[in-house]
Amino acid sequence: MSSPVALTTTYHTDTYPAISPTSPALTQFGETILITGGAAELASASRIIIVGRRDASLEESVVKLRNEFKTTEFITRQGDIGSDDSITFLWEFLHSQNIFVHVLVLNAAYVSERILYSEGAAKLFGKSGFKWDSFALPADFSVWAASPEAYRLHGRYVWPHWDVNELRADSDIQKQLQGKGVHESRSRRIAYFR
Predict the structure, then answer these.
(1) Are 191 and 145 in contact (CB under 8 A)?
(2) Cβ proximity of 49 and 34 under 8 Å
(3) φ and ψ at 182, to 5 degrees?
(4) Bridge partners of 47?
(5) Confidence label for 118 from pLDDT (cuts 50, 70 and 90)
(6) Looking at the DSSP assignment, which residues form a beta bridge with residue 77?
(7) Which of 22, 82, 103, 105 has the lowest tally of Cβ within 10 angstroms?
């Protein structure tokens, strides 16, 4: 299967070494990361703020993350990114706590022939009913996309199925990305996911 927007010939459905969050080149140590729509494996950061609509689901996820990543501070906030009031309340809270967000990860749900495997989705749809993508793929891709390695993609829409090695090696893609409003500042990195 290919991506709806095919920039690379390789189509990933699982994580791979170039996007591994354990790579020293991809560390987010000392950074605060804000993730909407659920958790991602950005636990190399000092602080991760996870925003979602259901408070109970957020707390359940963060309990697991806190047990696994003991040196990372996790903050959950209930909110709906589709609501202006909710977003205003979130940023007012962050400001009141003097929290500066270094990386913003906007997760968006997308269901196609392949869907993201999670325990909740498997309960709803059944484990054998779909061709599942690994949960680690978008999580690990988000680590790479927020790193200096991906600076030319900051502030752009990207697809986790794309192969990052091919993106870096393709001279045509690199030419298209040069000098077109790319955010190189670490305080303005934004990764969008579909």
Answers:
(1) yes
(2) yes
(3) -75, 135
(4) 32, 73
(5) low
(6) 51
(7) 82
